[in-house]
Amino acid sequence: MHGFGAIQPWFTESLSRDTLHSGAPYKDPALVAKMMGVTYVRPMLAAPGGLVILSADQNGALEIGGYERMLRGQHVFSSEANREFSGPGITVRLRQDLSAMTVAISIDAKIADSLVIDLQSLADRLLAEYGNASTDKIPPEKMAIVAANQSAMVKVFFPILRIQRRHEKFVVGSFDAVFAYRYREQ
């Protein structure tokens, strides 16, 4: 919190950043913790009550080639009654428990095709890989799901996924999502 001056003698490598680097004068605390052999949990992500917050690394890139449209800024919470939202050429319907969603692609206001996105499997995969401690360093591609068939293609990117422990099981509690999609006419 107050710099690494007090612990610098423990290291042969300098804990200061390169002087040409803008921002904080010290190295990332997660890197210093790793150098010490301990796991670092960002204080703002240490959520109480069995909540795990998984966030994409803000410095990572996301592959978006091959899609025609994007629906951004969707914030979904388990407490909301409305389980459907839409944008130009897309309608998303969520299961009540947020374990999955159906993405319908429309042309001229008529549904052309739909795909099912399994959110719970993404949550389970991320928890298996990153454990049940919150983190904000997940590569963006690992926070995305791609679904496709002969005519429709959807990529859902989750900048943040909040997972809650309920009765010895982890379930999706809320998330932010960005949808990239396209329809290929036959």
Principal-axes shape call: elongated
Q: Provide the helix percentage.
A: 10-25%
Question: In percent terms, what proportion of residues is strand?
Answer: 35-45%
Order of helix and strand elements from N to C terminus: HEEEEEEHEEEE
| Individual helix count | 2
- Low-confidence runs: none
What is the tally of beta strands?
Answer: 10
Radius of gyration: 20 Å
Tell me what the structure shows.
- There is one protein chain.
- This protein has two helices and ten strands; from the N terminus they run αββββββαββββ.
- The strands form two sheets. Strands 1, 2, 7, 8, 9 and 10 form a six-stranded mixed sheet that branches.
- It is elongated and about 65 Å long.
- The protein has 186 residues and is mainly beta.
Summary of the model, kept short:
With 186 residues, the protein is mainly β. It has helices at residues 29-36, 119-130; strands at 51-56, 69-77, 84-87, 90-94, 100-107, 110-118, 135-138, 144-148, 152-166, 169-183.
List its traits.
2 helices; mainly beta; 6-stranded mixed β-sheet; 10 strands; 186 residues
Secondary structure layout:
Layout (H helix, E strand, L loop, with lengths): L28 H8 L14 E6 L12 E9 L6 E4 L2 E5 L5 E8 L2 E9 H12 L4 E4 L5 E5 L3 E15 L2 E15 L3
Parallel strand pairs: 1-7
Antiparallel strand pairs: 1-9, 2-10, 3-4, 4-5, 5-6, 8-9, 9-10
